[in-house]
């Protein structure tokens, strides 16, 4: 004879096999009689991992326990992912979601605007005035350049380059005595500066003092053997002085009528800037020099043909990484040709470039 099945008899093996589920079921039975502690996240994870009952039964028992006792933790996205990965079904998650407090997100405080400090402007220094003067000098604005060089040497009286460049300005303004004084001071501060000796030699020659010019050209060559222009000028003046000496010692003779003066092969034009340029090309800053923060001035000695085109360019001072760019820019530039009367002839001169990382103000 087959006995009718009893539901309570069917569930008893599960309740007696695991103490955890027994405690949950008992707590559900007596929930109305006594206050039971809330379930923790650990309680639910242990129940979900139990192998004594199958997954649907675990979820059903735990969901009912959650409804009766509640939970101690706050539901979050991470906790929900962890429960789902352990085997929690939708019914259990819905029960937890109903009993758990939602995560409270505190609003972020409004950003507080920080006061922007007002920088104190740095007063101009000697370098500022010198750079601005170089720009004016390159444009042929000699009066403006002179005012800035005056300020530069006032702020820094031991800068040989500032006196050298101010001497060039005085030369262009035809203030030859002042130019000599500045070249003297530059040489005093930097006795090995060949450019100062060369420029003073050009000035002495312009003033008609060949003997002093010869001495300065010789000193420029001694300090810089690559200065071909100084060598050329030195040879020319010595030849002229020798010729004069021969004339003085030769008894006068009847000479034929003098021939028209023959144009010299070349004339030294001194400093070449924007005022004498037909096309002044700005040098390209070498990437290696720029990354290495290399700055400074580069002086390039040039030779011009009868059309004013640069046929030879040689840097005689300045950093090695800047010389190539300066020479390339000089070769691409063009100037007004040197003139002997109405005849265009070859010429020589020098171009000074200033390389600066920061833009000139």
Number of continuous helical runs:
15
Rg computed from alpha carbons, rounded to a whole number of angstroms: 48 Å
- Roughly how many Å apart are the termini? 113 Å
Overall mean pLDDT: 83
Indicate the proportion of strand residues: 5-15%
CATH architecture of the domain at 265-361: 2-Layer Sandwich
Oligomer: single chain
For this structure, what is the CATH class of the domain at 265-361? Alpha Beta
Fourth-tier CATH superfamily name of the domain at 265-361: TonB
Indicate the percent of residues in helices: 40-55%
CATH topology of the domain at 265-361, by name, is TolA/TonB C-terminal domain
Descriptors for this entry?
361 residues, 15 helices, alpha+beta, single chain, disordered N terminus, 5-stranded mixed beta sheet, 7 strands, TolA/TonB C-terminal domain, two-stranded antiparallel ribbon
Structure in a nutshell:
The protein contains 15 helices and seven strands. The protein has helices at 7-17, 19-29, 41-49, 55-69, 77-86, 90-99, 126-138, 142-155, 160-172, 176-189, 194-206, 210-223, 228-249, 287-291, 320-332, and strands at 266-271, 277-279, 296-304, 310-317, 334-335, 338-340, 343-355. The longest helix is centred in the middle third of the chain and has 22 residues, at 228-249.
Detailed description of the structure:
The chain is built from 15 helices and 7 strands. The N terminus is likely disordered. It is α+β, with helices and mostly antiparallel strands and 361 residues long. The N and C termini lie far apart (113 Å). The strands form 2 sheets. Strands 1, 3, 4, 6 and 7 form a 5-stranded mixed β-sheet that branches. Strands 2-5 form a two-stranded antiparallel sheet. The chain is rod-shaped. Among the domains are: 89 residues, no CATH class; 97 residues, TonB (TolA/TonB C-terminal domain, 2-Layer Sandwich), CATH 3.30.2420.10.
């Amino acid at each position: 004879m087959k006995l009718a099945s009893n539901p309570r008899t069917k569930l008893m093996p599960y309740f007696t096999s695991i103490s955890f589920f027994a405690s949950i079921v008992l707590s559900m039975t007596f929930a109305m009689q006594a206050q039971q502690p809330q379930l923790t996240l650990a309680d639910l994870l242990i129940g979900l991992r139990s192998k004594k009952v199958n997954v649907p039964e675990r979820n059903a028992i735990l969901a009912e326990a959650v409804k009766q006792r509640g939970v101690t933790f706050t539901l979050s996205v991470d906790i929900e992912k962890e429960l789902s990965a352990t085997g929690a079904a939708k019914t259990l998650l819905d029960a937890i979601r109903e009993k758990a407090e939602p995560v409270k997100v505190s609003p972020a405080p409004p950003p507080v605007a920080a006061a922007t400090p007002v920088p104190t402007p740095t007063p101009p220094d000697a370098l500022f005035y010198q750079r601005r003067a170089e720009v004016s000098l390159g444009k042929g604005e000699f009066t403006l350049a002179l005012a800035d060089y005056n300020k530069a040497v006032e702020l820094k009286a031991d800068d040989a380059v500032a006196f050298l460049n101010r001497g060039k300005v005085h030369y262009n303004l035809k203030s030859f005595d002042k130019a000599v004084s500045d070249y003297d001071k530059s040489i005093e501060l930097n006795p090995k500066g060949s450019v100062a000796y060369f420029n003073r030699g050009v000035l002495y020659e312009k003033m008609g003092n060949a003997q002093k010019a010869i001495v300065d050209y010789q000193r420029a060559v001694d300090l810089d053997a690559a200065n071909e222009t100084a060598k050329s000028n030195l040879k020319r003046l010595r030849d002229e002085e020798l010729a004069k000496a021969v004339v003085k010692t030769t008894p006068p003779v009847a000479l034929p009528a003098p021939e028209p003066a023959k144009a010299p092969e070349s004339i030294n034009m001194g400093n070449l800037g924007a005022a004498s340029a037909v096309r002044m090309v700005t040098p390209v800053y070498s990437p290696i020099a720029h990354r290495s923060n290399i700055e400074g001035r580069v002086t390039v000695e040039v030779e011009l043909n009868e059309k004013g085109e640069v046929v030879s360019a040689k840097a005689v001072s300045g950093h090695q990484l800047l010389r190539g760019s300066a020479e390339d820019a000089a070769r691409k530039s063009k100037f007004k040709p040197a003139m002997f009367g109405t005849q265009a002839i070859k010429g020589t001169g020098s171009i000074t470039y200033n390389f600066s990382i920061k833009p000139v103000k």
